[in-house]
Amino acid sequence: MKNTKALLRTAALLLGCGLLAGSNCPGPEPQPPDAGLYHTYDEINRELHDLATQYSAIAQVHSLGKSVEGRDLWALKISAAVAQDQGEPEIVLLGCHHAREWIAVDVPFLIGRHLLQNYHRDTLVTRLLDHATIWVAPMINPDGHQYSVSSQRLWRKNRRNNNDGSFGVDLNRNYGHAWGGPGSSGDTFSEIYRGPAPFSEPETQAIRDFLQSRPVKALISYHNFSQLVLYPWGYTSNPAPDRALLDQLANGIADRIRAVHGVRYTPQQAADLYLASGDTGDWLYALRQVPALTIELRPSSSVPGFELPEDQIQPTFEENLPAALYVMQWAAAAGSPSP
User: Fold this and answer.
1) In 3D, which of 252, 261, 239 has the Cα closest to residue 330?
2) 230 and 270 Cβ atoms separated by less than 8 Å
């Protein structure tokens, strides 16, 4: 639909120029970045605000802060008591720390939309929103994502000018716990450049301040690709204090994903994939000792890798929905996960 409208505008302009002999016609109007069926920053901005308007009794949009280039980091707050802070359990879904991971924007967004559309229609959703608050922040790296859409599809980092000819910090290496350790780089040109200091970036500062201010009981950070369910620690192969619980939750997530379309996601400690220091999950787990999980979405391999075809958006959302509901249900109950 978006591409069709753009073509019609261009055709109308060219036709008008043809009818006006001898006139100086401008070229086609520049079009905004287009990610096809994936959401761009402007589309996420608009649709989150539309949802908050449509479901104003249970939804609000908040800016968590600004990016390097001044874009708002939008988050959707969903709760039956959305206008109040009652100290009820909160579950946070984060997307798109890495710019090229477009599916990591759409999955949390679609989960948030599903919650709103199904309040008072689905018993589990209604119970969750009556007893917990869900936050959905689908695009933590709006500048990098915009650059990935408009200029360099496989761009990973944010758009910090490092003043040496390089741009960008890997936001998922910029968090404070074990910052500067293995699996990160001090080379500004590296894709895993950790930044000059912990929380040097306004994007990670915003997430830090937000998470520290909320009664968060669980977090899911969405990435792609590899079809994995990862839990702390990522910076060391040593087991986390709550290893048994984290492993149980990760297995529960993987089981619920597989039950939808038969797609297998492997549950494992993050360090079993590779060492990575200064990431979101390790930092929040160290701070709060709450489950902080990373889900690496479809596909399973580098082909098609980050460029997941558009027809995979819906099934990827469908298989991750019951997994997210499972984590929300566990956190809302503040008890052991169901078998």
Assistant:
1) 252
2) yes
What is the C-alpha to C-alpha distance for residues 313 and 298, in angstroms, rounded to an integer?
A: 9
Query: 38: which 2 tokens?
Result: 């994936």
Tokens of residue 217, six digits: 């009981």
Tokens of 113: 């939309």
Alpha-carbon distances, residue 34 vs 139, 154, 224 (angstroms): 16, 15, 20
Decide if 155 contacts 147 (C-beta within 8 A): yes
Tokens of residue 162, six digits: 């490092």
The CA distance from 250 to 248, in Å, is: 5
Give the strand order in the sheet containing 72-78: 59-66, 72-78, 133-137, 90-95, 216-224, 292-297, 228-231, 266-269
Predicted local distance difference test score (pLDDT) of residue 86: 80
**SS3 of residue 99 by DSSP:** coil
Residue 91 near residue 290 (C-beta atoms within 8 A): no
pLDDT confidence of residue 22: 41
Q: What angle do CA 316, 111, 151 make, to 5 degrees?
A: 65
Confirm if 254 and 266 have CB atoms less than 8 A apart: yes
CB 133 within 8 A of CB 88: yes
CB 89 within 8 Å of CB 225: no
62, amino acid identity: H
CA distance 163 to 149: 23
Structure tokens at 148: 């990935």
pLDDT of residue 11: 44
> Which residue positions in the chain have pLDDT lower than 70?
1-31, 335-339
State the catalytic residues: 296
Question: Could you tell me the two tokens for 320?
Answer: 């991750």
| Number of CB atoms found within 10 A of residue 165's CB | 8
3-state secondary structure of 120: coil
Query: What's the pLDDT at 87?
Result: 86
pLDDT value of residue 33:
78
Characterise 132 by phi-psi region: left (phi > 0), alpha (psi -120 to 50), beta (else). beta
Could you tell me which of 322, 329, 336 has the C-alpha nearest to residue 244?
336
pLDDT at 29: 59
Residue 6 in tokens: 């753009």
